[in-house]
Amino acid sequence: TYVVTEPCIRCRYTDCVEVCPVDCFHAGPRSLVIDPAVCIDCAVCVPECPVEAIYPEDELPADQEEFIEINARLAQQWPVITRHEPPPNDADEWAQIKNKREWLD
Ligand code: SF4
Ligand code: F3S
């Protein structure tokens, strides 16, 4: 499965959602997650993300492994998103910030 990681938080560009053939992105207020039970590993979402937040599960950076559990859990709570939405006004500023896990949900 593919996993949305920390760079998505407070960037939430949503460019990824429109290309997913199986609609497995779920949207929270400040980031998105992928439902691992639905993702078919097609990889087409990866180049769409301006902040390179999406990785295959087996190629996650070591400090992002927590996001496997986060994606699985929050995909059960957040609604599916299939259409692009405008990102937050300050998304480009948050794209420069590395440690932002506290704003996950
Ligand atoms: Fe959707 Fe494919 Fe990305 Fe999985 S890898 S989230 S199926 S676009
Ligand atoms: Fe997040 Fe990147 Fe999609 S910032 S919403 S994973 S395009």
UniProtKB/TrEMBL annotation:
The keyword RNA-binding does not apply. It holds the Pfam family Fer4_7. Gene3D superfamilies: 3.30.70.20. The keyword Transport applies. Ferredoxins are iron-sulfur proteins that transfer electrons in a wide variety of metabolic reactions. One of its GO terms (molecular function) is 4 iron, 4 sulfur cluster binding. Keywords: 3Fe-4S, 4Fe-4S, Electron transport, Iron, Iron-sulfur, Metal-binding, Repeat, Transport. Residues 1-29, 30-59 form the 4Fe-4S ferredoxin-type domain. It comes from Spiribacter salilacus. This is Ferredoxin. Its cofactor is [3Fe-4S] cluster; [4Fe-4S] cluster.
